[in-house]
């Protein structure tokens, strides 16, 4: 009975530090008349933290747009990431991200990440973090070819609270290719959120994605997305 009692006590002790978080985002645009267009943008982030040092985060996103019943954009992603806090400012992470965007020239893209995280500024109204790591990518292209790529991943994110109910966020990601220097990528997003209450808010964001060596079938190197969405956090 003693081992069982010890196991129960350990479980209760761990659960006392556990914490669940959820962030759901929904954006819908529908226009009817001389030009019919529809756009759907759904995003979900679910987090679980335990022992005050370990956390898991699941993320999913789906985007689709069509004009006059003709689809012109569709992409989705699913991600899972584990973070381990080493100190008040430093930590380690490992994650897996699966993406699909046929209009960018790939059916599936599997990204495996590992790296370190450092908190540059940690204040009540301003938080600035940075990450540095390695990414291994397997990309199944729409042409039937497959590419295996090695990247260095540099990422930074800053969140600023302007008022009690208004906050801004800016993140930037740079992915230099270790094999082909011209095949680098950059991604960035700026957003501003206005909260109605402790749960609901409205978010407006501008996302930019740049691939210097775009795949066959891609029309341009740069993708941009301007969104307005309802966000629920709890």
Question: What would you say this structure looks like, in words?
Answer:
With 234 residues, the chain is mainly β. The chain has one domain: monomeric porin ompg (Porin, Beta Barrel), CATH 2.40.160. Helix content is 6%, strand content 70%. The chain has one helix at residues 2-15, and strands spanning 19-31, 37-50, 54-67, 70-85, 90-101, 106-122, 126-141, 146-161, 166-175, 185-195, 200-211, 222-233. It has a twelve-stranded antiparallel beta barrel. A hairpin with a 2-residue loop joins strand 3 and strand 4 (70-85). The two termini are 39 Å apart. 7% of the residues are buried.
Cα shape: globular
* Secondary-structure element order, N to C: HEEEEEEEEEEEE
CATH fold description: Porin
Number of strands: 12
Give the strand order of the largest sheet, numbering strands 1, 2, ... along the chain: 1-2-3-4-5-6-7-8-9-10-11-12
Measured distance between first and last alpha carbons: 39 Å
Please identify, by name, the CATH architecture. Answer: Beta Barrel
Please report which band the strand proportion falls in: under 5%, 5-15%, 15-25%, 25-35%, 35-45% or over 45%: over 45%
Rg for CA atoms: 20 Å
Question: What are the main properties of this structure?
Answer:
single chain; 234 residues; mainly beta; Porin; 12-stranded antiparallel beta barrel; 12 strands; 6% helix; 70% strand; globular
């Amino acid at each position: 009975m003693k081992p069982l009692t010890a196991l129960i006590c350990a479980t209760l002790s761990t659960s006392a530090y556990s914490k669940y978080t959820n962030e759901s985002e929904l954006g819908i645009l529908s226009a009817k008349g001389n030009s019919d267009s529809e756009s759907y943008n759904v995003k979900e982030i679910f987090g679980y933290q335990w022992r005050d040092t370990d956390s898991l985060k699941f993320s999913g996103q789906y985007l689709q747009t069509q004009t006059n019943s003709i689809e012109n954009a569709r992409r989705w992603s699913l991600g899972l990431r584990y973070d381990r806090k080493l100190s008040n400012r430093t930590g380690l992470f490992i994650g897996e991200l699966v993406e699909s965007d046929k209009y960018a020239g790939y059916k599936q893209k599997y990204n495996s990440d590992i790296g370190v995280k450092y908190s540059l500024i940690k204040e009540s109204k301003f938080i600035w973090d940075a990450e540095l790591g390695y990414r291994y990518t397997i990309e199944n292209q729409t042409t039937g070819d497959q590419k295996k790529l090695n990247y260095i991943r540099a990422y930074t994110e800053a969140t600023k609270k302007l008022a009690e109910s208004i906050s801004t966020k800016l993140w930037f990601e740079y992915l230099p290719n270790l094999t082909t220097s011209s095949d680098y990528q950059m991604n960035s997003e700026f957003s501003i959120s206005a909260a109605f209450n402790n749960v609901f808010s409205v978010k407006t964001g501008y996302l930019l994605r740049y691939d210097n060596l775009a795949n066959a079938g891609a029309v341009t190197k740069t993708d941009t997305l301007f969104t307005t969405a309802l966000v629920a956090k709890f």
